[in-house]
Model the fold of this input.
Amino acid sequence: MKDDVIGDYLRELLKKLQDNSEGEVAAYIPELAAADPEPFAVAFCTNEGQVYAEGLREGDAEREFTIQSLSKPFAYALALKEEGLEEVARFVGVEPSGEAFNELSLDKATKRPMNPMINAGAITVNQLINGEESSVEDRVNKILEFFSDLAGRQLRIDSDTCDSELETSDRNMSLAYMLRSYGMIQDSAEDAIVSYVKQCSIMVTVSDLAMMAATLANGGVQPRTHKQVCSRRVAIQVQAVMASAGMYNAAGRWMASVGLPAKSGVSGGIIGTLPGRLGIAAFSPKLDEAGNSVRAKRVFEYLDRDMGLHLMAPEKQGRVAVRSISTVEDDQTSGGSQGKRTVIRLQGDIDFNACEKIWRTIQEHDFESENVTVDLEKVDEVNSVGKRMIGEFRDRLVRNGMKIEIVDPDEVLS
Ligand code: DON
Done:
């Protein structure tokens, strides 16, 4: 049977929003100003690497566009991977600036850019990649390969958009001179901006972006290729900064209304991550006054409303962790235990909350026998905290004179 329920939902969503023609395409890059303002597409990628991509018109879902500022979280991930969190923190902070993306902004005390999502921070981060001595070409190749790993396919740079932006880069050049004057970057301002603008000119589709975002959401593991592209710690750090600063001066409003780590770019893309679950991308070129795509923003608002994505509105756990606790006749034991055995059956996902409930249930139970079986047959997953706590429970029960048998047919504890 082929019945694409998720594709149907996404197509309906695009149709619902197609009449929204608010906003303007980015005018400061001639190549973007001349681009078709109509494309409209959305994609998401699950933690299992399943990608759903839909476009309003034929070809919209497969359309390539320049990544622009959506490159910033990923370049930050690469710098963190190469240099480590502490070293990168010497050059760029993690606080929201509350200012526009191209503001000449530095932390007053440290002279570091406030965060890697605004241009000042992104130009600095770009310069940390492949070491201080790197040529522009080697640095950009490093970035291109890293982005290709995140997307799971070979990406390319659009030289037309790159050249077009370099013709109108006075603002970014002034940022580079400012950063150089404070010793934050070492390259010439010209080289720093060529390198940064090339990074912004990498071509992606909504599916690429959804997979790149899903890799962050998935703790750095690309959900299709299963390659550990960056560490879990790096993925956490990048998403944390996206949550506080990804939407520039609209970041607070975005977190309150949509509630996902996100990033926008002037070509009209927005990406979002639902940690542990999804990478999401939407694209349509017309932007609001904060530089965020009007239609893509609406897509996220609808997805949040329909699918309950907001990080601050977690679903209650569907199933209680203790399925049953009972005493049964035990033919394996004899004498001292009076032939009885307590069987604790667990179920669902075992995390901290589940363990708290399991231990409380054990404490309240009146054990008729020292023989205890903990049955994990109906358990789906045990996270790292769950594994540690179950080990601790076992040790404590043994110390209290219990004989513990763990039934784990699917090896969820290993
Ligand atoms: O720095 C610039 O001007 C662009 N190449 C990227 C800016 C961007 O995408 C800002 N996003 N909202």
User: Anything to note?
Assistant: DSSP finds 15 helices and eleven strands in the chain. The two ends are 36 Å apart (CA to CA). The longest helix spans residues 136-151.
